[in-house]
Amino acid sequence: MKHIQKRFILFALFAVVPFLMNAQTTAGNETDTIIITDDPLVQVPYRKVAQSDILGGVSVVDLEELTKKNYNTYSLDNMQGYIGGFTGNALWGMGDYLVLVDGIPRAANNVLPTEIEQITFLKSAAAVVLYGSRAAKGAILITTKRGKETPLEVNVRANTGFHVSKSNPSYLGSAQYMTLYNEARANDGQSPLFSDDEIYHHASGSNPYRYPNVDFYSSDYLKSYYNRTDVSTEILGGNERARFYTNIGYYRQGDVLDFGEATDNFTDRLNIRGNIDLNLNDFISAYINTNATFYNARSANSSQEGGNYWTAASTLRPNRIAPLIPLDFIDPNDQQSWNLVNGSENIIGGQYFLGGTKLDRTNIFADYYAGGYSKWTSRQFQFDTGLDFDLKGITEGLKFHTQFAVDYATSYSTSYNNTYAVYIPSWYDYNGTDVIAGIEKEGNDEKSGQQNVGGSTSNQTIAFSGYFTYDKTINADHNLNAMLIASGYQITNSGQYHRTSSANAGLQLGYNYKKKYYADLSASVIHSAKLPEGNRQALSPTVSLGWKISEEDFMANSSVFDELSLNVSGSILNTDIDIEDFYMYEATYTQASGAWWGWYDGASERSTNSKRGGNDELDFVKRKEISATLMASLWEKLLTVNTSFFINSTEGLLITPSTIFPNYFFTWWPEASFIPNVNFNNDKRVGFDFNVNVNKQVGEVDLTLGVSGIYYTTEATQRDENYEYDYQYREGLALDGIWGLESAGLFQSAEEVASSPEQKFGGTVKPGDIKYVDQNGDNMIDDKDEVYLGRAGWSGAPLTLGVNFTAKYKGFTFFALGTGNYGAYAMKNDAYHWVYGDRKYSEVVLDRWTEETKATATYPRLTTENGSNNFRNSDFWMYKTDRFNLAKVQITYDLPQSLIQNSVFESISTYVSGANLLTISKEKDILELEFDSAPQTRFFNIGLKATF
């Protein structure tokens, strides 16, 4: 508690300091100027450089400017719409990128766009080498806002909007389900389970309490929309001696659920971010950054094992229970039943008691009405500080920088866990009216009033870096820069024995001649405790060359090119990211007390069993890469182009091989292995990315069109495999390949089944089942007939596109953003589409095969068995995930100064926006469907920003 109090005192000081500083620095502000340049500074590893001096594989978004026309709620929201090479979840298809917030490894979702100045995407190996092993698959640098040399400025932004559900799953009602379940039983040679009379009563809807027909997605349980509201305030200012920035923000978001305790579900976040930059004297400057974030999420309790409302919605059949039963149905003379329900603590709305069955002593509805609630709480405190020394007294251009950070996060859950009783009614007919003539009670109502605390976690990050920089210009032509870096961090997570660690030393040497010819040599020496002694250090070198062609004499009079440059780089990065655990180089042995053999007959002995061999030569995984970047500005910046081409090979991925060691290194019984982990598998990615922007003024309208994207291929260039048939080999095919059987439609008759290859997946194959192609001609269908079917796009679709458009006219700004993904496939292999056994029936089964529909059926016959023949990966279930999304539209109006010049406001902007508005796809219904989680939503927002 003492440490927490210290942190709050620190944050309180940040709230006071701006006003104290403003009172002391008025004289300095009198000469403040704001310089806007066409060559902005971009944050790259450990420094900021002019955008024109970047040597490729780097893209940047000025989020502070972007937020003026595109308000959003997540720091990396739809960044593929602006950045070529970013798929939305990976850089250049690599996956597992590193996020650094102000130079410290932190979560991207713990910093909101209103707190961010700039986001830099480091895609190439040369761009990330100085960050060491953990950044080997790319890095995203989030730079938060800082104070400026301006008088005191206050910005207030307020938003409120509504999430509107796009679509809900379509499950069959009780009568349809019961009818088709009977059909499934008939298909399996079984008698009907439900009588025609039962089905009739469920279909009539005359008494849904006796004959339930539960629709989880009705307005009884869900709202069609819910609110999100946020407010943030920025306070900034300063002078040449000191600058400050503070951001205080709060948001609260509701939930689509609308009954019981779930009516009060919410998520909220309070953040306080602040920083101070100080010039202590002519050669020492310092800064302090702090952030505190408080998250809360309240939700109704669920007693359902491993599930919540949405998992129950996808599994609980509509005829199974009546969640609530009106008291009015109880026979007025049935005193025993009235005594039971009158003793209940959970009479809902004074009208209903909780229904159930002997098999369903709890259910999700009763949980949310009577089971209590829980609240997840998270507290995150972040602190970093740094000193910068200008060592010009030693030599001009030499500086030393150091940074130290400590982040601490805790989370826990508190809950009130109630137990409750459900009541099983006995129904009878009285003069044509349904009456409850008896009630059986299951369970007891108990509310202890005790708050339970659990799920406690804690995480800590400690980071340090110290580095020298050197910048020198000789004779106005020769520009030198260099860095010598030592850095590292450790992340400790509760419940994990080993910390996540990074330690490296880096060197960067750069030179350019007249800002025309560039050369850069960068390298890092990394360390990893995941590898055996002797292999724990490695050198990662990169070389980059650049040529600013537009500076050549032969381009001096070009009427086309304003700027034209070409950069190439070659790199070898060593990394331990793909080494999943520690001690993977060690041999593993276990001891069993009940051995299968003994030293003499009649007695068992303890045995020591080898599970894995050791490998003292286990080494780092390597990313070997060649990339080239072309940047151009044409026709006085009417058109700008930035495109990169890359070839990278990830080599030495760890496997436990099965074919490169003799077969006697492994036995199935007793299970034993002397095979070690080895560096063997190799992956290859080849692709290009692009950003193209067109800027044009037409009359009084300023137009900007931006197109970005990435296209890449992947290949497994080396694999440990030994298949019987060539078409089964993974080597040479995509890394994210989908494998399965090739289908040939549905069997139409018993004769066709008998004349076709035998399908060996269990159960009896009948008409209406899926027919498969015999790939190897052995007259049977089994796993040996699986083939490559297409790419899944695990790290992004083969082609990712983004389009953004801006039109400005006087005070109005229109902005639109679209994103697209093309070339990937997915499987309909979820519980919504794979319906068998006693699973809940969705609308997909309406297209099932029957004798009457066999000419048009697109779904296999229904079955109550496990469906092992039909419900397995095959192209029958594949679909294309190609889509184009209208991700955002916003209209902003900036009030003219003439209206506010005599007020307290410096500027006022209002805006309306819509997000996730439209999906254009052949498979739109599937892509917008969520069947075991909350529905996807469109978000409509209205906002106001005012500057004082």
UniProtKB/TrEMBL annotation:
The keyword Signal applies. Gene3D superfamilies: TonB-dependent receptor, plug domain. InterPro entries: Plug_dom, Plug_dom_sf, TonB-dep_OMP_SusC/RagA. Residues 1-23 form the signal peptide. The lineage of its organism: Bacteria, Pseudomonadati, Bacteroidota, Bacteroidia, Marinilabiliales. This is Membrane protein. Residues 58-139 form the TonB-dependent receptor plug domain. It comes from the Bacteria. Keywords: Signal. It holds the Pfam family Plug. NCBIfam families: OMP_RagA_SusC (TIGR04056).
